[in-house]
Amino acid sequence: MWKTPRDGGRPTLDEAFVVYSFGGTPWALKAGQFNDDVYHEFTVISKRQFCAGRSLMNEVLMEGCFDRVQGVAVLYGRKDRPLRL
């Protein structure tokens, strides 16, 4: 997913990741640039979220750290009830 300024300008990368599932197991690896899964409201991409979803209190608690992370995540569980590390 790319982010492009409305008034023109160069597009920047917002999210790009791959997920590799280990066949027949509930384990998977996710690698790339994605939202940090510390709090649930940050797992929903901004274009699918209500404006009130990210509050001023979140800004204070997270110290303004709403950016994407680049790394690897370990996923466990079904798609509807994952556990992320």
The number of helical segments is: 1
Distance between the termini: 23 Å
Q: In what range is the share of β-strand residues? A: 35-45%
Q: What's the mean pLDDT score? A: 76
Radius of gyration: 15 Å
Widest sheet: strand order? 3-4-5-6
Task: Please identify the structural class as seen in this structure.
Answer: mainly beta
Tell me the overall shape: globular
Overall strand count? 6
Element order, helices and strands? Answer: EEEEHEE
Uncertain residue segments:
none
* Major β-sheet profile: 4 strands, antiparallel
Helix content: under 10%
Q: Care to describe what's here?
A:
There is one protein chain. With 85 residues, the protein is mainly beta. It has one helix at 56-62; strands spanning 2-3, 12-13, 16-21, 27-35, 68-78, 81-84. Strands 3-4-5-6 form a four-stranded antiparallel β-sheet, with no helix packed on it. The mean pLDDT is 76.
